[in-house]
Amino acid sequence: MRRFLALLPMLFLSLMVWGCSSPENSLKEAREKLDVKDYATALKAVREARHLLLKEDKPNPKMLGTARYLEFMSLYDNKKPKEALALLGRKEPKPYVIPPKDAGWMGSAGAELAAEAGDAELTKKYSNDCITHRRAEKDAKAEIFCSTNACSLLGKAKKVEMKTEFGLKALDVAVTSNAAPLVVTDAVACVLDGVEAGKAPKKLPPEFTKHDVAVKKALAADTRGKGLLARMEALAEPAVAAAKGKGKAKGKAAAKKAPPGKGKKVATKKK
Fold first, then answer.
1. What phi-psi label fits residue 37: left (phi over 0), alpha (psi between -120 and 50 degrees) or beta?
2. Is residue 102 classed exposed, middle or buried when 0-12, 13-18 and 19+ CB atoms within 10 A define those classes?
């Protein structure tokens, strides 16, 4: 009996240590430390949680996803961009699930970090991730933000020509969701920036022109409208001029091929 009583403190301490080192408790601690901006302790706790989860044969995918999300947040908030980007590129050895809302934020934050690092391709990748997850949420406003934010970030990364893709995505959702004229105008500006900075021939893509009526209506309600409309017309003029040039060339070629007497007036002799 005395031996048992002597072992009780050790047993109690063991139970405390076991309880504190469970994935659930480590994740809880990480959240609490993030709330008070103790990023170093939060990072330590969440990595402990991940370590414990990966030791399990079949860890809870939601918990493993939470660990990944909180680890990224700890690095991002603690201004460690290289480590945060490395985490996004890291493949987990076991399945995990992150809710679309959290995954969308990770994509947006990742795009921001990639742009600051001057990596346009990664900026594009994580911006598309952001769009995919916001679309899964069925949140049109958040999806548009992912696209227009990509436009801004690609400008910082000095890859303006890559803006077109995201401007078109923003425009499509803005028009179909009846967004405010300001939102449509922002998307238009993004498309025009990309097209103007792109390779020749510089012309507006069909995905843009199909929204012509909605675009002009939005531009009429925005102070930037006149300037953007002038840019649109300038991009349309080369195509019109080219079409006219081709028409003239075809007419001349046809005239050359025409047999004598056709296409020309033949003078008749006076008797």
1. left
2. middle
Average pLDDT over residues 209-224: 95
* Dihedral Cα 42, 43, 45, 46, nearest 10 deg: 110
Q: Is 231 helix (H, G, I), strand (E, B) or coil?
A: helix
Assign 151 to helix, strand or coil: helix
Helix (H, G, I), strand (E, B), or coil: what is residue 201? coil
**What tokens appear for 20 in the block?**
């504190």
Q: Which of the 8 DSSP states describes residue 269? A: P
| pLDDT tens-digit map of 57-71 | 999 999 999 999 999
Q: Angle, to 10 degrees, between the axis of helix 225-257 and the axis of helix 212-220?
A: 140
The label of the residue with tokens 């008749």 reads 268
Residue 141: band (very low, low, confident or very high) from pLDDT cuts 50, 70, 90: very high
Q: What confidence tens digit (pLDDT) does each residue in 20-58 have? A: 579 999 999 999 999 999 999 999 999 999 999 999 999
* The residue count for the chain: 271
Cα separation, 108 vs 134, whole angstroms: 10
Q: What percent of the chain has pLDDT over 70?
A: 80
d(CA 190, CA 160): 9
Q: What is the average pLDDT across 108-117? A: 97
Residue 259 DSSP symbol: P
